[in-house]
Amino acid sequence: MLQVSLARLKQGHRTIAYPAQAPALPERFRGLPIVDTSKCPDGCDECAEACPTNAITIDNQGLRLDLGRCLFCTDCMEACPEGAISYTRDYRLATRQRNDLLLQAQTLKLAEALDGTSRRLFGRSLKLRQVSAGGCNACEADLNVLGTVVFDMGRFGIQFVASPRHADGVVVTGPVSENMRTALLETYAAVPAPKLVIAVGACAISGGPFVDNPEVHNGCGSLLPVDLYIPGCPPHPLTVLDGLLRLLGRLEEGRRPS
Amino acid sequence: MIGNNGFVTLRNGQAAARTRVSEMSMAEFRDGILDAVASGQRVAAFFGHAPAAGGSVDLYGVLVDSARAHLHVGKTTLESDGFPSLTPECPQVHLFEREIGEQYGVCPEGHPWFKPVRFHACYRPGHDAWGRNPDEAPVVGVTDYYRIGGEEIHEVAVGPVHAGVIEPGHFRFQCHGEQVFHLEMALGYQHRGAERTLVGGPTKRTIHTIETVAGDTSVGHATAFCQAVEGLAGSQVPIRGDVLRGIALELERLANHTGDLGALAGDVGYLPAASYCGRLRGDFLNLTALLCGSRFGRSLVRPGGVVFDLDREQKQQCLERLEAAYRDVENAVNLLWNSASVQARFDGTGAIAREVCIALGMVGPAARACGVEQDARQDFPSGIFRFAQVPVSTWTTGDVFARAYVRWLEIQRSVAFIREQLRALPDGPIRTGVGALKPEHLVVALVEGWRGEICHIALTDAQGRFCRYKIVDPSFHNWTGLAMALRDQQISDFPLCNKSFNLSYCGHDL
User: Fold this and answer.
1) What pLDDT sits at residue B1?
2) Chain A positions in Cβ-Cβ contact with residue B199 (cut-off 8 Å)
3) pTM listed for this prediction
């Protein structure tokens, strides 16, 4: 017992001060990518050619980057002869609309809060059922992390629950394998309305590295009405937390991390 | 070599012309595998390949001879859509034969429990090993299951969607009251076509598919893939690149082992260690992110070496944070060993006998917990492990305690390894160019991932593209071990036993 108490003292308080304080992210963390198109030579499409998921398209309207397809890898950066592509450490990436993830020189339109009724219902207590539908266990692992003392998602009233009957929505990971389609739809159907759908990771948004494989459905968007898209491969836990808090209207002015 | 007549002998990562793998008769191939396994070798992979559309199916067997660091590869060509099953005499190939049957529509005749693995259509149009209508897509989970009769027998079905934030799979327990007579698992829910889609590669997407075969083992699978490609291209990774790969591989092991110990504590309701280890797992993930920006080591390991280097300051920071995390892990994990209530739940639960472990061809910490001394880092060293040895950690009891304790031993040794490697980080480049892959070659690459032996086999065609790429995640060897561990256990111990293996669903389902 003494050892347990001493260990408790030694292990200390570990919950991050977020959202009151901006979080510390690794120096090499790859957050929101930016493309300085002024550096792009005419006719160059090296980045688009290199992108493993064809997240970058270049046509007569210019360069467009689909954050929903982006794996946040280094292939485009390495391919670019002009060093025009770089990653910022901005972890805030979640949007309400799929189209908002298609970036073309505009700033990313981050997720807006739910409207009045939903926000009243879920704003202070959100219970979610997670369904991995072909996920590789990276998104799943970093969702699990939200329950650790570091992120302590429970302090915002957000919790993963075991039964869809107890849930206010589903969090989908994975490209939705054909073999998980029925289980996903049945889980969703078992959640009482009104309910939310949150797509976490490139796979759930677009199919990720498995896009267009006949064994998968390119994400859950064609099967379920998605309320929140959280890009990444996998998204950093803070990207997920930021998305959830935005959805609940918990990061309004004055409470936003500097 | 005894028992390996007709098999070509290779080293880990050594490419050989496919013509060197001579054609054997089914009888020679079969005897070669059975004799080798009887003499202590293990089947690392057994898979099919259909070289020409509409043509016959080749079977390849890859045996590991740990004592000599030899890999033996043999091949036979099937003359019909059937072959005599090896499973009755060699249980460790049972799942491989089911996989071959499902993928290529050839039936292992005499297989005692021949059923689908991943529930997808046959890769050879018009064929089906079960005689089902080839035009109808198989439905996942719809198959035969073991059933035990009797008045007080009941069946418990769980999944595919589980209570926690984990991957899907279906489990069926045949129970008598609380006692489990048999557990059968039906997987395949995670099937994404990962292996099939690699044919024709490498393409720009290949490495990303590899990194997500099992996302918690991104570094392990990426390293195995790179070893295969480097072997086929005949390129040498600079030593600094090898060291950084080794560090990343051990960080992956540290994160997962620490997380598993925490989860085991959670499953027996011991919350202090569960809570601390949950946090500490993240500290190790963050060390990987310090190296490459991604907590899962994405975009780090690439053919020819690694993408990111460590400068002096980062190296120092890495060392300091490693020591700090290790001190806290030691503190948290020792709570487990000193808590009678934890030990009472770990001791003797889900025990597997050494003979069963060997017969099933189990790998990784689960096998080492049964006293089987095998570890690809020692037996088939590649990369930096050719120069730096990590002692093999074993225990003898084969139970939940053993699987937990082996993880703790490995944590200590991985920390010692990383510490040593960081302090003596050699100078030089981290990556070299990798040329075209040799045409008509074959390579076998083994890496000891945190779950155990990762085996990648690549066959190239006349253009140097992959005409077959076989991935064997360690989970593929070990799922049956979990089923055996549950025999005669209480069903309430399933979560604990399951976590003590912590196998990959997507790595199995591919």
Assistant:
1) 44
2) none
3) 0.96
